[in-house]
């Protein structure tokens, strides 16, 4: 028997959905506003409230994080096998459990709990090629919230109980929502894939939504970090965070020149590239020390060049990373609650998604944005 609270759940709700192809812009009335969808690939429309599965939970959404990859999901039509013709966007979420499936028990969660929602918890099947190798975030069988299947840009969402992580006291719904990706992805990349240690010197490209969280994670680990970005206001924020001025590459200064002029040749153990352009990937191969690591997370340019002779002679490790895991998210929320990491997050309302995504693409938003739900 399902466990529920006393809240009356409506039969339908309004949600931001991706339509495969090019539906005409529509005007949908809801609450006290009329919304015209300018982007031809997205529609704010009425859909049924999902039903909870026996192994799942129904959450009333509190906050949904906006990610740059939402733009890619809207515009790229070449999709993975699990993508639906129409689906609710949003892969960063925090909500309150209002119903639990009949098979859910003894998992430490209860109706009323505030939970962060992992978008890709995997299927957890023993015969899964990915989950069986501890690669749940790469699973193709499980649900992918907001990535081809219904996600979190809606008042309610239904997910498997394995996707839910209880939010500790002191962490706001907005922080918890963006932590599921903007912090968790950086944490997994740095601690599990790159295995950055406190004795290392790290070079960080990019202080955007993920990069600034990465900066805080490296500082939490205790490693020295050199930072580079094309926006002065973000370099100023790094300085305000406590990064010494001589560890900040001046805006417009070529990183290779900075390394030479500051006696850092042969001292960069790991490069964290949260940008992924031709230039950052090129610079990374030149500035990293022999035997060093290049950790690739950003992908603004979808194809970059590896210099085979540089990579071979320096015996470099090129490491790619994608997402994070549920156990990473548990640790991330714990660190945020302790005050060692403070995600930069601005808040808007759910109907503002289109405007926020446009501003994000134009570089007008330096932090992360969480859409709050009424």
Automatic annotation (TrEMBL):
The protein's required cofactors: Zn(2+)
The UniProt record lists the keyword Oxidoreductase: yes
Gene3D superfamilies named in the record: Medium-chain alcohol dehydrogenases, catalytic domain, NAD(P)-binding Rossmann-like Domain
Domain Enoyl reductase (ER): 42-371
Keywords, alphabetical: Metal-binding, Oxidoreductase, Zinc
Pfam families per record: ADH_N (PF08240), ADH_zinc_N (PF00107)
GO molecular function: oxidoreductase activity; zinc ion binding
The keyword Nucleotide-binding is annotated on this UniProt entry: no
Family per record: Belongs to the zinc-containing alcohol dehydrogenase family.
Protein name (record): Enoyl reductase (ER) domain-containing protein
């Amino acid at each position: 028997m399902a466990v529920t609270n006393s809240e009356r759940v409506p039969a339908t709700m309004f949600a931001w959905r991706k339509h495969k192809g090019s539906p005409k812009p529509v005007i949908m009335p809801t609450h006290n506003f009329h919304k015209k969808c300018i982007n031809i690939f997205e529609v704010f429309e009425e859909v049924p409230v999902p039903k909870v599965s026996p192994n799942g939970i129904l959450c009333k959404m509190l906050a949904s994080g906006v990610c740059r990859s939402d733009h890619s999901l809207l515009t790229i039509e070449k999709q993975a096998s699990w993508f639906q013709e129409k689906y609710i966007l949003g892969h960063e979420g925090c909500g309150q459990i209002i119903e639990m499936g009949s098979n859910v028990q003894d998992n430490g969660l209860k109706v009323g709990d505030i939970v962060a929602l992992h978008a890709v918890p995997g299927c957890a099947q023993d015969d899964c090629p990915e989950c069986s190798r501890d690669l749940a975030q790469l699973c193709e069988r499980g649900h992918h919230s907001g990535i081809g299947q219904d996600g979190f840009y809606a008042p309610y969402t239904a997910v498997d109980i394995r996707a839910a992580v209880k939010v500790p006291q002191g962490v706001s719904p907005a922080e918890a929502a963006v932590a599921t990706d903007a912090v968790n992805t950086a944490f997994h990349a740095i601690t599990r894939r790159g295995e950055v240690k406190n004795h290392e010197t790290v070079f960080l490209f990019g202080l955007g939504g993920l990069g600034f969280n990465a900066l805080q994670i490296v500082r939490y680990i205790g490693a020295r970090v050199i930072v580079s970005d094309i926006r002065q206001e973000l370099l100023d924020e790094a300085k305000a965070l406590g990064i010494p001025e001589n560890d900040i590459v001046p805006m417009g200064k070529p990183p290779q020149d900075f390394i030479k002029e500051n006696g850092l040749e042969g001292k960069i153990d790991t490069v964290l590239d949260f940008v992924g352009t031709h230039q950052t990937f090129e610079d990374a191969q030149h500035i990293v020390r022999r035997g060093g690591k290049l950790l690739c997370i950003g992908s603004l340019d979808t194809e970059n060049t590896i210099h085979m002779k540089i990579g071979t002679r320096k015996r470099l490790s090129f490491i790619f990373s994608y997402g994070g895991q549920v156990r990473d998210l548990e640790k991330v929320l714990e660190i945020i609650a302790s005050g060692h990491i403070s995600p930069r997050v601005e808040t808007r309302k759910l109907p503002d998604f289109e405007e926020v995504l446009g501003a994000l693409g134009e570089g007008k938003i330096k932090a992360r944005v969480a859409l709050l739900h009424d």
